[in-house]
Amino acid sequence: MAGSSLLALIDDIATILDDVAAMSKIAAKKTAGVLGDDLALNAQQVAGVKADRELPVVWAVAVGSMKNKAILVPAALAISAFAPWAITPLLMIGGAYLCFEGFEKLAHKFLHSKEEDEAHHAELVSAVANPQVDLVALEKEKIKGAVRTDFILSAEIIVIALGTVAGVPFSQQVAVLVAIALGMTVGVYGLVAGIVKMDDAGLYLTQRTGAGMAVPRAIGRGLLAAAPKLMKLLSVLGTVAMFMVGGSIITHGAPFLHHAIESAAAAGGPVLGAITPHVADIVVGVITGAIVLAVVTVVGKMLRGIKRKA
Questions:
Q1: Superkingdom of the source (predicted)?
Q2: DSSP string for 243-297
Q3: What percentage of the chain carries pLDDT values higher than 90?
Q4: Which of 54, 180, 241, 259 is 20 to 30 Å apart from 279, CA to CA?
């Protein structure tokens, strides 16, 4: 589950960096000619600007993640002490949101017109043309979305951790939750930062000169070639992870679903038994996301209609 949570977080950050890369591509195009269509562009053509755009995005989400933990740890302890019955419903609401976010990504091309995509592209062009634009501020709303995803995933992990220390003294519960919160944030976002800077490491290695540098240069070229493919793969896996994590929360909160999946897994043998729960979680996640998106879309249209009439 921790791996799925990491992928879901990387997916949201990769979505933000898609626009950052698109901006860099537009800027580089003015001096370097036509570039390819990959969202993660050639590091050599944007050397000197990527660090100023990628790492602040990851840092902004990491800071938001720390704020989430500062809220979640005392909240989890308080809810566990005074309203333990509320933990499962709150987690299910969060799981439904994850499913909604994942399904919205899938449905994007059907819900957003070509004009909207062109307007967004024009916004990126305008941002690149204005050197005073703070690119992190431009992506502020998307960063907030990544922080919201982090909040839900962090809540799930902290609740699980709280369950493992339920029988120990309160002071030990606090110490364990704080240690997990800090370790999660540093570990997850340190790894994310390393992934998004992989192309810059590759660029550094390709520029090494002198005797014995043939192997490092070859490794650097490999990193440059692999970086955009890895980010795309992680983005796809991250969307799947949203359904898996969100669906898992929903199924665990609905006993009849959980028992049905367990029965199906037990009847499937060793291989199918190991795969079935994950597939079932994804299916439940997709269905939940579709339902929530439909409700949100209908309610949104109704509210806009009422507002226009008023």
A1: Bacteria
A2: HHHHHHHHHHHSHHHHHHHHHHHHHTHHHHHHHHHHHHHHHHHHHHHHHHHHHHH
A3: 8
A4: 180
Q: How many other CB atoms are there within 10 angstroms of residue 116's CB atom? A: 11
Q: Residue 249 in contact with residue 156, Cβ under 8 Å? A: yes
CA-to-CA distance for 155 and 219, rounded, in angstroms?
39
Tell me what the mean pLDDT of segment 245-266 comes to. 87
Q: Report the pLDDT value the prediction gives residue 206, as an integer from 0 to 100.
A: 87
Q: In whole angstroms, how far apart are CA 78 and each of 38, 175, 260? A: 47, 15, 33
Phi first, then psi: give them for residue 280, nearest 5 degrees. Answer: -60, -40
In the three-class reduction of DSSP (H, G, I as helix; E, B as strand; rest coil), residue 238 is classed as: helix
Judged against a pLDDT cut of 60, whether residue 235 lies above it is answered with yes
Report pLDDT digits (tens) over 15-36: 555 554 444 443 333 323 222 2
Helices 198-206 & 214-253, crossing angle to 10 degrees?
Answer: 170
Q: Measure the CA–CA gap between 272 and 265, rounded to whole angstroms.
A: 7
Could you write out the DSSP letters of every residue in 95-117?
HHHHHHHHHHHHHHHHHS-HHHH
Residue bearing tokens 């992190």: 136
State how far the Cα of 292 lies from the Cα of 25, in Å rounded to an integer.
Answer: 35
Which ranges constitute the DSSP H helices of the chain? 2-32, 50-82, 87-111, 114-129, 135-138, 140-164, 170-196, 198-206, 214-253, 255-267, 269-309
Phi first, then psi: give them for residue 42, nearest 5 degrees. -65, 120
